Amino acid sequence: MTRLDQNRAQAQIAARLNVPVDKVKNVTIWGNHSSTQFPDASHATVEINGKAVPVPEALKNDPWLLADFVKKVQTRGAAVIAARKMSSALSAAKAAGDHMKTLWQGTKPGQYASMGVWSDGSYGAPPDVMFSYPVTIKDKKWTVVQGLPV
């Protein structure tokens, strides 16, 4: 459910900046799901007045991005269950649909999505495990984005 975490991360940033969610691009979910993931907005952009602005710049390097944001995305599923006494099934279903749409339609130039894929050891992750990376997708084939400073 990496895409669920990506959607949650984008929503948190959009709310903080008071912009529509679809204006936030290239948020990365590293690792696994829930508490074993790391949501990363250091390479994300947000469209403000028609211009792509790095999220850290748009947030004026707000400490929220490295503290509360990370924890909130990691614990959002548990918070929903605690508040509703049931899972966030509709959000998960939406994320599954978003995932399939991206897989089938591909990513737009300059954009990527987070996806749990078989690790090749990129970015120091253990090889031969499922790991969430930023990926580009073309012709229904994913490629791990390389070279992002981490």
TrEMBL record:
<protein>
    <recommendedName>
        <fullName>Lactate/malate dehydrogenase C-terminal domain-containing protein</fullName>
    </recommendedName>
</protein>
<comment type="similarity">
    <text>Belongs to the LDH/MDH superfamily. MDH type 2 family.</text>
</comment>
<dbReference type="Pfam" id="PF02866">
    <property type="entry name" value="Ldh_1_C"/>
</dbReference>
<dbReference type="InterPro" id="IPR010945">
    <property type="entry name" value="Malate_DH_type2"/>
</dbReference>
<dbReference type="GO" id="GO:0006108">
    <property type="term" value="P:malate metabolic process"/>
</dbReference>
<dbReference type="InterPro" id="IPR015955">
    <property type="entry name" value="Lactate_DH/Glyco_Ohase_4_C"/>
</dbReference>
<feature type="domain" description="Lactate/malate dehydrogenase C-terminal">
    <location>
        <begin position="2"/>
        <end position="148"/>
    </location>
</feature>
<dbReference type="InterPro" id="IPR001252">
    <property type="entry name" value="Malate_DH_AS"/>
</dbReference>
<dbReference type="GO" id="GO:0016615">
    <property type="term" value="F:malate dehydrogenase activity"/>
</dbReference>
<keyword id="KW-0560">Oxidoreductase</keyword>
<dbReference type="InterPro" id="IPR022383">
    <property type="entry name" value="Lactate/malate_DH_C"/>
</dbReference>
<dbReference type="GO" id="GO:0016616">
    <property type="term" value="F:oxidoreductase activity, acting on the CH-OH group of donors, NAD or NADP as acceptor"/>
</dbReference>
